[in-house]
Design a protein that fits this description.
The chain contains nine helices and 18 strands. It is α/β, with parallel strands linked by helices and 329 residues long. An eight-stranded mixed sheet has the order 4-1-5-7-8-9-12-13, sandwiched between helices. Helix 2 crosses helix 3. It starts with a strand and ends in a 10-residue tail after the last helix.
């Protein structure tokens, strides 16, 4: 029987009502005690990394989780992280860059309703996560939620309340867990070595452009961040009614990394299509996200800047695919 380490972080799955609303209260051992049938799936150990509403989870917490997994990597066959849903996609992306090409599964799951409520998705998600974690074909960082197995670099929370909360953006679901078995859609033969990283530069921001935005908003962000992800409109570009282009030019001259992406969920960016994008793409050394999610772009830029501030190396690292994060070559 395989041995799995369950890492608790708080979130809705572990919450109880308080005078101010739901708040994390249960640790990972208490969660497991609520589901006796887990003993039929695998042997488990439990550890509590922290106990937070995931709204409060930050890159420093991704590093804590990566450290726990790295230190215990040789002792377990897989890892299941119980996590709040609100920032789960960011954490999944962050771990995908901190632990690359993992031969063992690193599964994030959670719930839209606390495990103690009469109607809850918590028990199903926990069981599904463990079933996936012990399956022979499982490896890498994934989210298992409402039966879906989603690559950690492709996940996004699409619904705030319904149980089917997460979707896979610009990439198919890797598998589904149905009736106690794993049905795979994307074969993932493992090869190579697992690579662990322990550094991020979290001084990275994300700016969503809006019609009529004042240019000093972009100036403020550029001045304060080492890297900036700019969510533009459609397939990408910069408005011409202000000095946004000059702001980006100034940032590039100051050796800041700028990534252009789109706020449209599906199909990605292509700066070459319209004049507002092609001028930027052809004249300034900016990066383009293409089909990546904003969650993955933000996490990847933190990882890249944690490795280097040299543009040539940063560009090579950013465009190197990691765990299906982009289909662009």
């Amino acid at each position: 029987m395989k041995k799995i380490l369950i890492i608790g972080t708080g979130g809705t799955i572990a919450s109880k009502p308080s005078a101010d609303g739901l708040t994390p209260d249960l640790d990972s051992k208490q969660l497991i005690d609520s589901i006796p049938s887990i003993s039929d799936i695998c042997d488990v150990d439990c550890i509590q990394a922290f106990s937070l509403d995931s709204t409060n989870v930050r890159p420093e917490h991704w590093l804590i989780l990566a450290e726990i997994i790295t230190e215990n990597y040789d002792r377990y066959d897989g890892f299941v992280i119980t996590h709040g849903t609100d920032t789960m996609a960011y954490t999944a992306a962050g771990l995908s860059y901190l632990i690359q090409n993992s031969k063992k599964p690193i599964v994030l799951t959670g719930a839209q309703k606390p495990i103690g409520e009469e109607i809850t998705d918590a028990k199903r998600n926990m069981i599904d996560a463990l079933i996936y974690a012990v399956d022979e074909g499982s490896h890498g960082v994934v989210i298992v939620f409402s039966g879906a197995v989603i690559c950690g670099t492709r996940a996004r929370k699409n619904y705030s309340k319904r149980f089917m909360a997460f979707g896979s953006i610009n990439f198919p679901e890797l598998a589904r867990v149905e009736d106690g078995r794993v049905i795979r859609y994307v074969p993932e033969p493992y090869s190579g070595e697992t690579v662990f990283y322990d550094n991020l530069n979290a001084n990275v921001g994300l700016l969503k452009l809006t019609p009529g935005m004042r240019n000093d908003v972009m100036r403020y962000a550029i001045d304060r961040y080492d890297g900036l992800v700019v969510e533009s409109f459609g397939v990408g570009g910069l408005p011409e009614y202000s000095d946004f282009y000059q702001q980006i030019k100034r940032a590039v001259e100051r050796r800041k990394l700028i990534v252009m992406t789109t706020q449209v969920p599906n199909e990605g960016s292509d700066l070459s299509v319209y004049r507002v994008g092609s001028i930027l793409k052809n004249s300034l050394r900016v990066l383009e996200a293409h089909d990546m999610t904003s969650e993955a772009v933000l996490a990847k830029l933190m990882w890249v800047l944690g490795e280097t501030d040299d543009f040539d190396r940063a560009e090579a690292l950013f465009y190197r695919p990691v765990h299906h994060d982009t289909l662009f070559r």
